[in-house]
Amino acid sequence: MISPDKLQYIHGGQKRRKLALCFGALERDIIGCAENGCGYNFPSMTRQEYIRRLVEIVLEDPQLASAEKTALEKLLQEEPLDEHRICNRARNALLAIIGTFPAEWDLIIAPHRKTASCEHVLEPKGAENTGNLGPSGEGITRDFYPNLFVYAEDIRSPFNLGSIFRTAEAMGAQGVFLSPGCCDPLHPRAVRSAMGCIEVMEWKRLALDELPNLPIFVLETGGTPLRDFVFPKEGIVIIGSEELGVSPEALAKGTYGQVTIPMKGMKASLNVGVAFGILMEAWTSYIAH
Fold first, then answer.
1. CA angle 259-265-269, nearest 5°?
2. Which of 3, 92, 227, 276 is deepest in the core (most CB within 10 A)?
3. pLDDT tens-digit profile of 138-166?
4. Where are the beta strands (DSSP E) in 140-268?
5. Which residue in 216, 272, 276 sits closest to 249, CA to CA?
6. Which helix (H) or strand (E) holds 160?
7. Phi, psi torsion values for 285, nearest 5 degrees
8. pLDDT for 63-97, tens place per residue?
9. What pTM, to 2 d.p., does this model score?
């Protein structure tokens, strides 16, 4: 973080970028996941005072949209100050001026519940030949549905793969299997869109014929409508690539069945991450009830 006095001597795009970085660091500090050495550390003023000073500098920017200026001024007048919301608003207003989409910047990663250390990684039933999934986040214990997995086949977009990890973690999948043709889950864009979930999810690259002995079904058009599908209590769902969908080999592997999300729109098309989210909500609701 930079002193407000120093920021006054910086101009133009550099000033905006420095301010945006400061607001990002502040957001992490506010929600309790500050990066090492990047927590708030100005003894001469409180964090709230520092935030107010930075927002006042943003309000002086001649390129700040009038609607954003009004919104920031309103937030600045509120008592108590909503530190997280005003920092987030200011940061995104600056990114809009810079012309950088938030997905291409450092997203704010929410803190994860940390309890007892996770000393080992569970294997799915019948996974004698798969070895341990990994990595698993140290010091983090996850609550999940045992033997509930997704097999991501040839997902090419790091953003989509990160989204799949995030949904899998949120909905309680035990882990993620990746086909050899999937993009790298440690790609910066995948890590960013996963919001920390790749660090705590179990994952492993496997060919189709290496999948463990669990019920396997596929998410693809032309199958049983979602509302009529009888989900397995444990198993693996295969989701296909953004361009080609599930491969013929994967369709043949899905001996438990094929499930489809009914769509009414003209395009009848969903992003793979969105489709997976709809599927996981239905699957876990079925298991829970």
1. 55
2. 276
3. 455 788 999 999 999 999 889 999 999 99
4. 148-152, 175-178, 202-205, 216-225, 235-239, 257-260
5. 216
6. helix 158-171
7. -65, -40
8. 999 999 999 999 999 999 999 999 999 998 998 89
9. 0.68
Residues in Cβ contact with 234 at an 8 Å cutoff, skipping those fewer than 6 apart: 125, 145, 146, 147, 148, 214, 215
Q: What is the chain's length?
A: 289
The H or E element spanning position 163 is: helix 158-171
Q: Rg of the Cα trace of the chain?
A: 23
Is residue 95 within 8 Å of residue 20, measured between CB atoms?
A: yes
In single-letter form, the type of residue at position 252 comes to A
CB-CB neighbours of 126 under 10 Å = 12
Give 238's contacts (C-beta < 8 A, 6+ positions apart): 150, 151, 153, 216, 217, 218, 219, 246, 250, 253, 254
178 contacts 156 by C-beta, under 8 angstroms: no
Hey, what are 198's tokens? 């790749």
Tokens encoding 24: 């990002």
**203 is written with which tokens?**
């994952």
Please name every residue paired with 239 in a beta bridge, in sequence order, or none if there are none: 152, 219
